[in-house]
Design goal:
Blueprint (H helix, E strand, L loop, with lengths): L1 E4 L8 E4 L1 E2 L6 E11 L1 H7 L15 E8 L11 E4 L9 H4 L23 E3 L2 E3 L11 E5 L3 E3 L6 H4 L5 H13 L6 E5 L5 H10 L4 E6 L2 H7 L6 E4 L5 H8 L5 E6 L4 H9 L1 E9 L14 H4 L3 E4 L7 H13 L9 E5 L4 H9 L5 E5 L2
Parallel strand pairs: 11-12, 11-14, 12-13, 14-15, 15-16, 17-18
Antiparallel strand pairs: 1-2, 3-7, 4-5, 4-9, 4-18, 5-6, 6-10, 7-8
Helix pairs in contact: 4-5
The chain binds dephospho coenzyme A (COD) and zinc ion.
Length: 363
């Protein structure tokens, strides 16, 4: 099959012919329909985060089950699936206590599948998997626990976005922060994930929704996702702008959706006493955060967030239903559609802030 391989950081991906071994026990072979191009993948290309190389990146995909390995009971060939980048095992302490996004199993995979081996090869060289998915290939062998069945009338090339950006953003609002109706919300970073924080805030009934970005085009796009006020962080003092919009009251909730320590501080400073700041972004390895502890002394809460604190098999089908009933926007998230061969252009445009989400479409 064809897949895009990252051999070394700072290098473009190479689209190459790879061998993909069939699914082992409790694994499935999935023919991908589409994969989103997310900034988390870009962090590895730009060297902000480390991963064993060479690797096939991609963690936001949907497709059709082609074959299942021994012992698979959840899905069968022909089933439509969204892929979860956390394979929730259902048995670890996190899963049984309802925190499937933190499942222990994920942390056993450092470039491999759950059994510690790879299915991807180029000639004799082993190629690493990414989050047990590697959606930048025509096919993927994934753990059974990463499969999420979805209704067959939903377009796979759209619901691929429900593999990452949508649950990460919407989940940060409804699960992590538990935003209350009528609240005032600040979202710093209105990219592919940030737009989903914005639409999550709108779904939750937030009254004032302030989008912050450094690109005017991103801010304009935010209006479609429920932003009520726009702040250009490149031209305005973000904290003062939030003070003005909220008549001095400040925000109940702030979300950092960039991966920047400066923006985490900005988010914290935009919240009122008792306010909640949720850090969605991951900062470059080795980054250190300095905050004024006085903020916390006033009952403020600073929270982290993985995968929108979601339970993939409950939340993803629900998000697909919301899309099918036109309560959740996916079409408007997709700025461009590319072939796999064009993947480096998709990353360049993401890096330059030119797109909300691009998707790679297969077949
Ligand atoms: N102030 C305001 N906005 C800014 C600034 C700034 N100083 N710098 C950049 N921005 C804007 C950009 O213009 C852009 O619109 C937005 O921030 C970032 O959006 P994208 O589209 O480039 O990135 P996303 O939305 O695909 O990813 C953002 C994450 C924060 C999720 C990502 O970078 C990350 O940290 N991922 C790891 C954490 C995670 O949850 N990973 C799991 C799957 S994503
Ligand atoms: Zn992502």
């Amino acid at each position: 099959m064809k897949a895009a391989v990252l051999h070394e950081k700072f290098q473009p991906l190479k689209v190459e012919e790879l061998t993909l071994d069939g699914p082992g026990p409790k694994e499935a072979l999935v023919k991908l329909a589409a994969s989103g191009v997310c900034h988390s993948d870009l962090h590895y290309i730009k060297g902000d985060r480390e991963h064993p190389m060479p690797v096939v990146l991609g963690h936001e995909g949907a497709g059709i089950v082609e074959e299942v390995g021994p012992g698979v009971t959840y899905a069968k060939p022909g089933d439509h699936v969204v892929l979860s980048f956390v394979p929730s095992c259902g048995q670890c302490d996190y899963c049984i206590k309802g925190r499937q996004n933190l499942c222990q199993a994920r942390y056993g995979m450092q470039g491999t599948l759950l059994d510690g081996t790879t299915r991807l090869r180029k000639n004799q060289q082993e190629i690493n998997h990414f989050n047990g998915l590697s959606t930048f290939g025509e096919y993927a062998v994934v753990p059974e626990d990463s499969l999420v069945l979805v209704r067959e009338d939903a377009p796979l090339e759209k619901v691929a976005l429900i593999g990452c950006g949508v649950p990460t953003g919407v989940g940060a609002v409804i699960h992590t922060a538990k935003v209350q109706p009528g609240s005032k919300v600040v979202v710093i970073g209105a990219g592919g994930v940030g737009l989903n924080v914005l639409q999550g805030a709108a779904l939750a009934g937030a009254e004032t929704i302030i989008a912050v970005d450094i690109h005017g085009s991103k801010l304009e796009h935010s209006l479609q996702f429920g932003a009520t006020h726009l702040v250009n962080g490149a031209a305005e003092d973000v904290v003062e702008a939030v003070r003005e919009v909220t008549n001095g009251e400040m925000a109940d909730y702030a979300f950092e959706v960039i991966g920047s320590t400066m923006a985490i501080n900005q988010a914290l400073a935009t919240t009122k006493r008792g306010g909640v700041t949720v850090v969605v972004g991951v900062t470059p390895t080795g980054a250190e955060l300095t905050i004024d502890p006085d903020f916390l002394h006033q009952d403020r809460v600073l929270m982290g967030c993985t995968y929108g604190s979601c339970y993939p098999r409950a939340d993803m089908p629900m998000l697909v239903d919301l899309y099918m009933s036109r309560k959740l926007k996916l079409d408007e998230l997709i700025s461009r559609t590319f072939k796999l061969e064009e993947i480096n252009t998709a990353f360049d445009l993401l890096d330059q802030g030119e797109v909300a989400r691009s998707i790679i479409r297969y077949g």
